[in-house]
């Protein structure tokens, strides 16, 4: 029940006590929980970069100025989809490594990475700490790759700032269950449910939100997608050039 309550009470924290030092035991507990996440065929196609070095974290913030918590949190983790390990296996057995012929291997690795990330979030909250997932590390993905010295076949998916929260946050409302949960087959629903959620979020009045929920995503998907990710995937052998 404690684990269920932790998941139901999840919230994102972006302000951390800079004087709080994460103990080695706490960090290892989080990392161990992350490593125990389920993965396809037990492939564990991810790696975790533990970023403690202040200089590297300053450069991360320089690339992502809207996320200063990457510097001010106790530790910053970068979760990467890692197909380098299986490339080494293919090389050992002297067989072709054909991941660049389709999307399935990449989807598998990203899924494994996301599961490991979520386990880390739950473990962090079980320890009474807070975190924020950082997807914007993909914005300047080539620079991030160079900064973290990532080899080919390794894709940064998301970061995770962890620390002791200094500002309390509320549990954010979620979309109406009818728009998310489907039984047996995908069920159509009325757009009014999305409008209902727009109203809910407007009443929630999170300071950092300047648009209605639906308008935010209409604008986001109207814009051109981040082509840097496409180029990174080609350059790092996920796709054929």
Spell out the blueprint of helices and strands:
Elements: H1 2-8, H2 24-35, E1 46-51, H3 54-63, H4 69-72, E2 75-82, H5 84-92, H6 104-126, E3 130-134, H7 141-147, E4 154-163, H8 192-204, H9 213-222, H10 227-235
Antiparallel strand pairs: 1-2, 2-4, 3-4
Describe the structure.
The model has no long low-confidence stretch (mean pLDDT 96). The chain has a single domain, classed as NADH Oxidase. A four-stranded antiparallel sheet has the order 1-2-4-3, sandwiched between helices. Helices cover 43% and strands 12% of the residues. The protein is built from ten helices and four strands. α2 runs antiparallel to α6. The protein is an alpha+beta fold and 241 residues long.
Brief synopsis:
With 241 residues, this protein is an alpha+beta fold. The protein contains ten helices and four strands; from the N terminus they run ααβααβααβαβααα. The chain is globular.
Average pLDDT, to the nearest integer? 96
Tally of helical runs: 10
Strand order of the largest sheet: 1-2-4-3
CATH topology call: NADH Oxidase
Family: Belongs to the flavin oxidoreductase frp family.
InterPro entries: Flavin_OxRdtase_Frp, Nitroreductase, Nitroreductase-like
Domain Nitroreductase: 8-164
Protein name: Nitroreductase family protein
Task: Based on the model shown, name its key terms.
single chain; 241 residues; alpha+beta; NADH Oxidase; 10 helices; 4 strands; 43% helix; NADP; Nitroreductase family protein
């Amino acid at each position: 029940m404690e684990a269920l309550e932790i998941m139901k009470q999840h919230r994102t924290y972006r302000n951390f006590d800079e004087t709080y030092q994460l103990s080695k035991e706490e960090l290892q507990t989080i990392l161990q929980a992350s490593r125990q996440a389920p993965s396809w065929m037990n492939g564990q196609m991810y790696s975790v970069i533990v970023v403690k070095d202040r200089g590297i974290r300053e450069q991360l913030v320089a690339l992502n100025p809207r996320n200063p918590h990457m510097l001010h949190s106790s530790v910053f983790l970068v979760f990467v989809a890692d197909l380098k390990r299986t490339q080494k296996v293919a090389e050992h057995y002297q067989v072709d490594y054909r991941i660049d012929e389709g999307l399935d291997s990449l989807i598998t690795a990203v899924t494994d990475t996301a599961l490991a990330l979520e386990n880390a979030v739950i473990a962090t909250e079980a320890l009474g700490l807070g975190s924020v997932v950082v997807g914007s590390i993909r914005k300047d993905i080539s620079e991030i790759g160079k900064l973290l010295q990532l080899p080919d076949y390794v894709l940064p998916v998301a970061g995770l700032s962890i620390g002791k929260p200094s500002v309390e946050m509320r549990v954010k409302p979620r979309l109406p269950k009818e728009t998310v949960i489907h039984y047996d087959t995908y069920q159509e629903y009325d757009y009014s449910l999305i409008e209902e959620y727009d109203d809910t979020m407007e009443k929630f009045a999170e300071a950092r939100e300047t648009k209605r929920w639906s308008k935010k995503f209409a604008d986001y998907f109207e814009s051109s997608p981040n082509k840097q990710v496409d180029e990174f995937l080609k350059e790092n052998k996920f796709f054929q050039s």
